[in-house]
Amino acid sequence: MIHTAYLTTSCRDPGPFNLPQRHVTFNYITDTSKLILLHDSDILHGYGTLYKVPEHLINIRYETEFKLGECIDYRRRVFYVELAHEPISVGSTCPWYYRKNIDENRLPNVMYDVECICDNCIGQRSGRTCQKIYTYINVFRRIGCLNGIYDYSSIVEPISVGCSCVRDPKPIKTATQNASTALYHYLCQNIVGTEEHVKSIRMFNTVRDNLQNNTVITSGSFGEGLMMRGSDLDIMLVFKDIEVGEDTHTCVNANKTYFTMELEDTQPGFTKLRLVHK
């Protein structure tokens, strides 16, 4: 909402009332909604060319009209009321109400625009919000006072005409996220190696372990495909004549040694072993 102080300088409208010739800018924008504005346009999204008008000559104020209640009231109507004969502003997933847009420094002084009633879309999953749809029209605005007479110019002004349910924009990456991404790329290029390099080392370890009749498992960082300077080599040996399990009633093979796991009073990832048979 734009609010500034009223103009205090003594000035009057030109008389007889003689406004400059109305002209249309930006490919004849009058009553057509423009959701995407060209980058080389002087029209700013949601603001038009109001930035060209001195701040003290913008005094927009609003008067609410045709509002049936708050968001919760509209939710009830959408889900429980027959909406076949109600306007789209009431039955929409993003309902809106109309209001007077008033500014004595503009011609016309009074226009109608809309305000979204709900922040989030009715009946939609999270991550969707209600946003205004704008149209851009040419109006006459006071841009100054010369010799006690107001000077007018044609200005493109945004008017909200409805509300639409849109997906929330993707969050902008924080400085921490950017630093993490930069660190990842540095590690890949200078220390750890590329993704393909890591996959190759993992495949090499798997093949070598299989050739040793699955009695050795390469583990640790090297087992995960990371070959860094100064890193140690972790090897797990597999004893096929020893079995460990939770069930104490496991069928016993006289040629094997059996242990059961006791998890009480142990740290995560650790266990106590109780010898059952040797």
Automatic annotation (TrEMBL):
Q: Which InterPro entries match?
A: Cystine-knot_cytokine, IL-17_fam, NT_sf
Naming one, the record's GO cellular component terms include: extracellular region
Q: Name one GO molecular function term.
A: cytokine activity
Q: Does the keyword DNA-binding apply?
A: no
Location(s), subcellular: Secreted
Write down a Pfam family by its short name: IL17
Which keywords does UniProt give here? Secreted, Signal
Q: Which family does it belong to?
A: Belongs to the IL-17 family.
UniProt name for this protein: IL17D
